Amino acid sequence: MSTSFSRSIVRLxxxxxxxxxxxxxxxxxxxxxxxxxxxxxxxxxxxxxxxxIYRAGFASRRRIVHWxxxxxxxxxxxxxxxxxxxxxxxxxxxxxxxxNLSMDTVRAETLDAFNKSLAYAVITQExxxxxxxxxxxxxxxxxxxxxxxxxxxxxSPALGATDGQDSQFVNTTxxxxxxxxxxxxxxxxxxxxxxxxxxxxxxxxEGDTLxxxxxxxxxxxNTVLWANNLSVKSVLKxxxxxxxxxxxxxxxxxxxxxxxxxxAKTYNGDAERILSANKLADSSAITIGQKLMIxxxxxxxxxxxxxxxxxxxxxxxxxxxxxxxVSSSSRMIWPSDGHSIVRGLSWFHxxxxxxxxxxxxxxxxDDNYAAADGIVTFAGPRFSGYAGGYGNLVIVDHGNxxxxxxxxxxxxxxKAGQQVTAGTPIGRCGSTGNSTxxxxxxxxxxxxxxxxYRNPLEYIR
Length: 461
Fold this sequence. Notes:
The protein is α+β, with helices and mostly antiparallel strands.
């Protein structure tokens, strides 16, 4: 009985599978027939509606980018010019001054608040009562043991006085008959600032700051910074160990050729104080590697590093058009008549795009130039392969594994195998290939080829 039941279940399952397979085949046939029927309609809609819209949008984008990018570059150069920034600052300052000078009325509450201020009392030499307010507090708890001095020299408590707050004015006429004013000694937890002989180590605790540590040991904040190679932006950490000098100044490790006079002059210190602070018999007692405490000294001012290039060099004049070498140095020269960079290097853009003075047909009045001496390894159209989309492309090999590419040329002046020098015209700037406006796509490539794109701005002057 169980065997026949099992067979029946298996037959039913097989029948369901066959039915599903048949349904699948029917659905595929219907889908093919439907696709065959609507394919002409789909092609017609694409060719009549979507393709014209896409072409119009692409054409309009090229026209807009043609004038937008140069205008944007010129505008940004104009607003970031140093003179314009000075004019803007002077305008803000002048406008603020005019607004303040033109104010001829003062709000009543503002004037009343000024009349009650400490500045008003100092200027007018008038005393105004200073009132302290306490919210939700027991007034009796605020009464302290502040005393007033009587003519007999005895003390009596002043009712309503607060405990040591500057809310009561003392009438100096009441200090008659030889009364004395005793100043209370405030006790605190600050460490002693007694003279110290050597450098101590302090472990940063909770709540410590550079200023509180400096006050604790009686030295300047700069002394703490200099002794521990810190800056004002440094963040202290719990448990951090700090070197604490015995007094304000710097510590210097003696080097070969140093003299006491030279060290004192370099670190703005005094030779006699250095001898005394370090318990030296005379100036000849210093040894190489010895750490000297320079009381009151300061580190020497670092000499500014002069940079050989600047952002302004990007806008330097283009090379001449005679084909003569502009520079024989190892640096590369600016490779185009255009001066504005409209797109920089990124993970998806392998070079820099330099704007050209172009026309709507993709031509230009600007030329492109060899950035350095070398040999032309390729000169011609490149719309496919590893460099597809470059349009009319020129590749120059400069030796030592370094080469440059010049893409989107309208026309090419050189040929493969030709030797060129820095500044030689290699082509007319254009918009051939995968381009959205007349510009030079300039690349610097290392020895590993397409895996070694360099930043051109680190090479060109």
